[in-house]
Amino acid sequence: MKKLSLRQQAQERISQDLYPAFLKLKEFLQEIYLDRARQEPGIHSIAGGNEYYSTALQFYTSTKLTSQEIHNLGSSEVERLHRELMKVASTSALEKNMTLEELLTKMRDSEDFYFSSREDVLEACIKMKDGNCVAQRNSRSEVGIFSEFPERY
Asked: What InterPro entries would the database entry show (predicted)?
């Protein structure tokens, strides 16, 4: 029996298994699924859909905000964070006249903005006493970020 190369084995599996499966899926979508699908996207297009969506929003966000209010809040937070990033950039060693896009690209691509070890992350958190990441020593580990733990820990 002739031994097939890995490429030949892959081509065989694709032609014998994958391609027929995709053809079967295409047939199902065209002949069964699309005829039975709703014409309008979203839950709002079915009876009681708006009420269902409002209830789901309240459940998952623990608020009584509308979807528009949640969207507006998210948009304003993105804008606030962008302003904060630009403020930090203007007071740091970064180039002063960078656009937000240039700043984000530099932060993503430069190794200067990444921690090199777990210890570096914890050390930075400990130094940020007035920030959101306040590390403390505790009995559960040598250095931890959280002051409270679930019961199972």
From this structure: DUF885 (IPR010281)
Domain map of the chain by residue range?
A: 115-148
> At 125, which helix (H) or strand (E)?
helix 118-127
Q: What are phi and psi of 34, to 5 degrees?
A: -60, -35
pLDDT tens-place string over residues 9-54 = 999 999 999 999 999 999 999 999 999 998 899 999 999 999 999 9
Residue-level pLDDT at 149: 54
State how far the Cα of 69 lies from the Cα of 81, in Å rounded to an integer. Answer: 18
- How many distinct helices (H) and strands (E) make up the chain? 7, 0
Among 109, 115, 139, 141, residue whose Cα is nearest residue 128: 115
Average pLDDT on 65-86 reads 92
CA 151 – CA 149 distance, rounded (Å):
6
CB atoms near residue 43 (< 10 Å): 14
Task: Please name the residues in contact with 49: beta carbons below 8 A apart, sequence gap of 6 or more.
Answer: 42, 43
Q: Which residues have a Cβ under 8 Å from the Cβ of 125 and sit 6 or more positions away?
A: 133, 134, 135, 145
